[in-house]
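Priority: low. Protein: VOC domain-containing protein. Input follows.
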Amino acid sequence: MGVLGIGGLFFRSHDPSARAAWYREHLGIEAGAEGEDTVWMQEAGMTVFAPVAGTSESFAHDQPFMLNLRVSDLDALTAHLEGAGIAVERRTEWETDYGRFVRIHDPEGLPIELWEVLE
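Result:
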């Protein structure tokens, strides 16, 4: 008996269909707006589940959470995103023993951390 993993992520949106389309187009996530029968099959791997202090500077205080996504070929993905006009934030301190990280924001301002795990 116990939890096997995260079964879904549901979050409020001003325009659910447009936001789901953005995730499909730019990140390749099979996102569906509320009421759409869409399931995103993921590769198995690490998931960090960690509450952070309300005073944390990890991401903007007006955002309730940051989405962290494991990716492959971070350089190719960031080139694709920048080619689409999406700002990509890089910091040297985000190159760690755990992997490489960059940050973007979805159309409604949700911070998204893209994480290329070091093998």
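The chain has a mean pLDDT of 91. The radius of gyration is 15 Å.
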